[in-house]
TrEMBL record:
UniProt KW Membrane keyword: yes
Endpoints of the signal sequence: 1-35
Ranges in coiled-coil conformation: none
Official protein name in the record: Integrating conjugative element membrane protein
Record field: transmembrane: 67-89, 110-130
Keywords in alphabetical order: Membrane, Signal, Transmembrane, Transmembrane helix
Length: 133
């Protein structure tokens, strides 16, 4: 059965109307936005311990590098903590299955506490040295 010419004309008109209805939305989305972007504050002092003045891009880069070192140290600590916790869970699983003794579990936990504590002390010391310079 062949559709009537009236339905074809109606479908074509509806299609043209929907295309032309989208023109203002597309034109609005394509226009550039002229918003004033805020200036980013510097994260504190530069590597020499001096306050960063406005317009000093070298001091700003030094301050951002210093903040990046701090974030990198925190990421290392977080990764180390996750590895130690994962190892403890694995060691606990071996203990519950009878493949490890309680002495192995205690030894792992004591060494994990010593290693993580040492890493926290060293990263804290590094933060203090970077902060004082």
């Amino acid at each position: 059965m062949k559709p009537s010419p009236f339905l074809n004309t109606l479908r074509a008109a509806r299609s043209k109307i929907s295309y032309w209805a989208l023109v203002p939305a597309v034109a609005l989305m394509c226009s550039p936005a002229f918003a004033a972007l805020p200036t980013m504050p510097t994260p504190g002092t530069d590597m020499n311990g001096n306050a960063v003045v406005a317009g000093d891009w070298l001091g700003s880069m030094s301050a951002w590098f210093k903040a990046g070192l701090v974030i990198f140290g925190l990421i290392i600590l977080g990764f180390m903590f996750m590895k130690v916790v994962g190892g403890a869970v694995t060691k606990w699983g071996e203990y519950t299955k009878g493949r490890a003794d309680i002495g192995d579990l205690k030894e792992y936990m004591i060494m994990a506490i010593v290693i993580v504590g040492f890493a926290i002390l060293m990263i804290t010391y590094a933060f203090q040295v970077i902060g004082q310079t």
